[in-house]
Amino acid sequence: MLSIEKIVVEQCNNSKYIRPFRLSYVQDGKSKLWDLMKSHDSVAIIIHHIERRSLLFVRQFRPAVYFNRVYAGGEQEVPPVGTAIDGDPRLGLTVELCAGIVDKEKPLAEIAAEEVQEECGFNVSASDLERVSTFRTGVGTTGSMQTIFYAKVTEAMRLSKGGGNPAEGEYIETVEVPISQLYDFILDESIPKPTGCAFGVSWFLKEKLRPSFVEVMRQNYLQIAVVSSGISLFAMLTAVGICSLRK
Amino acid sequence: MLSIEKIVVEQCNNSKYIRPFRLSYVQDGKSKLWDLMKSHDSVAIIIHHIERRSLLFVRQFRPAVYFNRVYAGGEQEVPPVGTAIDGDPRLGLTVELCAGIVDKEKPLAEIAAEEVQEECGFNVSASDLERVSTFRTGVGTTGSMQTIFYAKVTEAMRLSKGGGNPAEGEYIETVEVPISQLYDFILDESIPKPTGCAFGVSWFLKEKLRPSFVEVMRQNYLQIAVVSSGISLFAMLTAVGICSLRK
Prior knowledge:
homodimer; alpha+beta; Nucleoside Triphosphate Pyrophosphohydrolase; 2 domains; 7-stranded mixed sheet; 30% strand; elongated
């Protein structure tokens, strides 16, 4: 049950999370300025429940997404302190890959394994994670790095219901999407999700699933028909040849 | 030729681009705070050069990516004003989908068409763009929306070399990746790129390309062999039957 209320704009001085600064540089002889901010790198994990033939995601309330979808008071202006941002809190729910920030000196795979346990409740070992690749998120503002992993889980690996770290005030729900519905899910705009989630699903569909034979037949019917006809013709000619020899 | 020098941290007050603010809210009875910032929505375009069998991307210097890759002076601290950020400027080059921010009251497809012309030099009409889907970028900080389109171009549609809007100080280079190399390209970590770029390529490979017959044969050799054998057996039996009837 999502219970979120009293969403109000507050003063924001010396934020621990949003620390803007500016770089100056000279590009092709011209002076330029760019405002950016410090941010953490992150890991994200494509979690494949192999018994249930599904992928697991996390759903949570994201204030920034909520604000962006609800507040229509001018693109350039920060709302004045005290402004109530009224709307259905469900507009702030996103579905994402299980993920976490890199805020400790540990191998990325270990941080990823911890997030799988914390957010989704499965005990995966860092050495069992498959590294997919790394990307840059927020290229305009933070340039931070996101490394994506792939993990297989089964019910035998379940330790808890997940739900995030209560000490960090996380309220995270696990969402399961059957493999057969994954592609519709990533293109469904009614479920806000990051591009990293859409890429993770695409990678999984390509790398971990063989295209179904029916789909392959449909997409390649002409070529398969030609090959099959060729094989059949050869078989018929062979058979006719054998018959003739017998005569 | 990339010429970028004298990259230095400057004072950043009242940034036009990074405007932090704070939301307070009550979730399940507990008061919470979240720092976020205002940001523009954006469009991005998967550009398919159909004659050249390639996709077109843009390469540019991204100060935030450069900083994130070069500066090792503590994850939490903003570097003091005057700090020189020394490193190979090529570390700040990213390859991305052609993209632009939504800063005018126009249909998204029109803004996308303008970006294709400005950054890559091709005249595409908004009505010819295919809308792929929308995603949320920066779910932690901005929650802004990115809408991805697909465009087909030919040399007959070329108006200029592209390169971005000089009035906005853009220095953008077009990068062409042959279809045969696309999948390796998105997983190649030596080329920094956003997850949106990786998703766009994945979508293209799935939606706009039929899997090659060789690949299909390889992935489905057992099933295809069974079907082909069945067809051949049927053909042989038919031929033998005909031969028998003739006798």
